[in-house]
Structure prediction request, 714 residues.
Amino acid sequence: MDEPLKATEPAAVEDAAPATVKVAGSLPEIVPDHTTDDLKIVMGDFEGPLDLLLHLIRQEQVSIYDIPVARITDEYLRYLQVMQNLDMAVAGDFLVMAATLIELKTKMLLPRDPFAAVEEEADPRNELVDQLLEYQKYKAAAQMLWSRATVERAVFKRAELETDKNNPEVVVGVFDLLRVFQEILGRHADEVLLEIEREEISMAEMIERLRNMVMSAGELNLRVFFERARSRSELVLAFLSVLELVRTTEIKLFQRKTFGDILARVAS
Amino acid sequence: MAKQQGTEQAFDVDPLAAEADGELETADSSREAERGEADLTPLTVQNVGERKAIIEALIYVSDEPLNAKSVAEVLKEDPSVVEAGIASLVEEFNGRASGLQLREVAGGWQFATRPEYHEHVRAFLKSRPSAKLSLASLETLAVIAYKQPITVPEILDIRGVQSPSSIKTLLDKKLIVAKGRKEAVGRPMMYGTSKAFLIQFGLKDLSELPSIEDFEDLVSGVV
Amino acid sequence: MAKQQGTEQAFDVDPLAAEADGELETADSSREAERGEADLTPLTVQNVGERKAIIEALIYVSDEPLNAKSVAEVLKEDPSVVEAGIASLVEEFNGRASGLQLREVAGGWQFATRPEYHEHVRAFLKSRPSAKLSLASLETLAVIAYKQPITVPEILDIRGVQSPSSIKTLLDKKLIVAKGRKEAVGRPMMYGTSKAFLIQFGLKDLSELPSIEDFEDLVSGVV
Prediction:
């Protein structure tokens, strides 16, 4: 429709040697390089399997109403192969279409039921053709939207007036309500997580924490130790654990000056 | 939509819905008082020229495309009279070889710069073209615009893909809105285009979209 | 035609490029090239009429009163030439018996409505349906919509705030209504959304509110 049609030889090079692969921005094409036997592949990205299929049909210059399924399927699979070779993640969409094409190819190879009336036997390609025709329309409509938006972007509205500030043009829909609600629930989820953590620390663990901190630091400012407490109950546990280690004479408390910070060190 | 908590940013609810409803009024006392006052001394329009001038002023101050009905309510006049005023204003304005145009978009009228001067305007505003929509999003938007109201599986089916990510993008950009649920198994949510869609794509209304069959003719000629 | 990888890889919509070759541009390199090119060829003004039109457009989009010097910089012209253009524009504009005037303020020019229509402008601005919601109100509304019927303490608890002021706002805006009393200590009043809420958000009934599942369907990659 809008791509330059590249006259390419219908893939006679089924098992062609590794192609010179170049990934370019937009125009996807498989160009035979006549100087060598290699294929030079310029890869583009496709919106989906239907997009790729349409591209191949156009590239092969075949009729959409009479798709040579075998040929197009081979091309399609070859394209997927290239994508995979390029380490591009081949989305499930493309693989589903590959399966559809292979099934279609098989059906086309099956001999027709000689006893069936001609009109009864629908062309197995019909469904795919309908799908492609339908998709093609919206693909073209997307182009139309694109050009409309382009023109619109060349049109400017007046700058904001003082009066606008009373009426900001922010539209709220139902999904905004849902999102806001989820955010509120999210705030709650955080709190709940903290709650669980809080309850998980035991007296024994707190004593162990204090012991480790004093040992590793040699000298520990209790303010630092207490500040690690994440809740009131942890703070209580922290205080109790200090008392406990002092009681068992594992640590000693002292001050460098009157009213100074209280420090703890291992009792020698 | 801004999410910072505690800011004074305000949100308007869907203007389309608000329009359909006429108005959803707040019981703000000062406003009630003002309106009462206005009712006592109705603002009258003296003549055709004054009406035109007032319409021009109102279109200018309105932050959204303004329709005849809203103007008629303020002037307490018949919408058809206002429409005639708008038509005369449009004729005058668009007849001038000027930098501004008066155009109809999303069911209302709005002043805007003429597209032919976009380079200068852009250079002045030092702005870069802002809106960015991927082709995937545009495809999805095209499907929704022509098939609305439509469900997510129906959209994906036409596009032949499985990921609904572009639908989410369009919702975030407010180009589409939820349009109720389909009376089918699972009551899936349906989507349609928004007023913002009309504005962003410069459409008077949905009927201004070319028929989808036109694209059929266009594409079948290709191969 | 440009092809883009499935998801949200966006392309810049550059009307310059579009007009030039009628095609989508995607590759970054080509865009860079265009921009460079644009810089090489300064924007020229063809004639007096075009200059006037551009000045009009620039004054219209400027958020501050615009002076000749600023325009001259954009047009790469002599300020005196621009001044002549502005003078001619002012003469034309203020000669019209219209709702807008072009006035000089703070050393620059700006459009403004004429003072004689200020009553109509004021009446119009007041008449606009204001369904403004602060984020706090929106949050409260969301909680009520999804948890109704619900009491005030329950709302405050979920939101993690102390002030019930946004509930009053929503009641004033008639977006929520009282829904009877809860059979609990003190028999507190319960609240739910109103019919106005449904209209405002374009819902037939509450079952049309999107659910977490609807949202997750859109966010999660594959349906």
Q: What stands out?
A: The longest strand of chain C covers residues 100-105. The CA atoms of residues 58 and 71 of chain C lie 8 Å apart.
